[in-house]
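Hi everyone, sorry if this is the wrong subforum. Our group has a chain we'd like a structural model of before ordering constructs, and none of us has done structure prediction before. Sequence below.
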Amino acid sequence: MHFGIICPAAPGHLNPLTTLGWQLQQRGHRVTLLGVPFGKSRALAAGLGFEEIGRSRFPGEKTAARYAELGKLTGLAALRYNYALIREDIVTILEETPDAARRAGVEALLIDQVSYEGITVAEHLGLPHIEVCTGVMMNREAAIPPYFTPWEYNPALWAQLRNRVAYAIVDRIYQPTFAAINQYRRRWNLPLHPSPEPAYSSLAQLCPHPAEFEFPRTTLPPHFYFAGPYANPSTREPIDFPYEKLTGKPLIYASMGTLQNRRVEIFQAIARACDGLDAQLVISLGGAGNPESLGDLPGSPVVVGNAPQLQLLEKASVAITHAGMNTALEALSYGVPMVAVPVTNDQPGVAARVAWTGSGEVVPASVATVARLRSAISRVLTDDTYRNNARRMQRAIAQTGGLERAAEIIERKIGALAK
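Answer:
Right subforum, don't worry. Here is the predicted structure as C-alpha cells:
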C-alpha cells in the first residue's frame, strides 16, 4: 500500500507522523509526505518519499519565519496567530495536494486530526483515510474541557456549561478557516458539516497516549484507539552533546520545544529557580538560538542549541517542559515527572492532564516567576509521589504497543477495504 501523509509543517506534527510512516515502511509499505518545502528534510530523515506543494507560497525560509514569530507569542494571541497560519496553509493544501497525491500514486491517507482540509482532500479523491492525533484529541464531549484550556476534568453541570462557552469561542475564531474549507467542499460536491468531527474517519482514529493519560471519556467511537506514542530513536537525526559536562547529580532537563521557545526570560527564570538545588540543569533551546543569547546564568547550567532529548530523559530526574504532547509523552515513557510551563495551543490541555495524573506540577508561562518555578521544581524533585505516578504512566505507555500497534491497526483497517 502507498500511504500519503498530510499534516501541518511544524515539528510537533511532522515528527510523530513521519515516524509512523517510517514504521509502515519497515512493514513493506511505501509512504510519501505531501507537504511544503519545510517538511522535506524531516521526511528524508525518516526515509520517506516527499511530494512538494506550496513552493511559491511557502518557501522554507518563510515557514521558519512564521514559526519564529509564533514562538514569541503566548496565550490567546498565539492561538489567534496560529489560526491565521492555518488559514494560509489550507488554501495551499486544498489547491495543490490533490494533484500531488495523484502524481505520487497515493492509495490511502494518514491525516493529522487538526488538518480538516486534509479530510476534505481525501473525500475529494475518494481515498480511505485515518486520523492521527498528534496532540490533545479534538473529539468533543460536554464534560471534557477544550484542548486549549488549563481546566481540570469536572463533570459538574456548571463545568459543562463553561466548556460549551469555550467551545463556542474557539468555533468563532475558527469560523473563517472553516468557511474557506467549505468553499472547496461545495465546489467538490461534498457534504457540509457544522464542525470537523462528523468528517473524522470511520475506519480508525489513533491517539498517541494511553487511555490512563486522558480525562474520563464516554462517547468516543469504537474505532478510536489509544495506540501510544509514535516515537523511535532510530528516526532521529544524531545530535552532539557534551556528556563530559554532566556531574552525576540529579539531572533537570529543560526544553520549551521547537516553536514556543523564543521567550528568553523563561529560560533565565528556570536557571535562577534551579540555582542552589542539589541538581544539575541542562537547557535545550530547541533550535531557536545559540547558548550565548541567554547570557551568564546562575548555577552554570549546560545550555545547548539542540539536545538529544531521549538520551537526556533517560538520565533525568525532572523534565521542565512547555507541555507539548510529544515531549510530555517522551518524559513519561522514561518515567520522568514534569514541571509543565504551558504557553499556548494544546499545551494547557496537556499540562492539565499532567496535573490530573499526578505526574507533575503546572506553572503557566504567564505566571512563571522564579519563586513559583523553584517551589514546583523542588516539590517534583524531592517528592516521590510524582515519580511514582510518572512511572505508572510509563507502564501504561509500555502496554499500548505504540508504533507497532498503530501500524497494525492501519494495516488491518485499510487492508479490510481491499478485500
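For your construct planning: Residues 237-398 form a domain with the Rossmann fold fold (CATH 3.40.50.2000). The mean pLDDT is 90.
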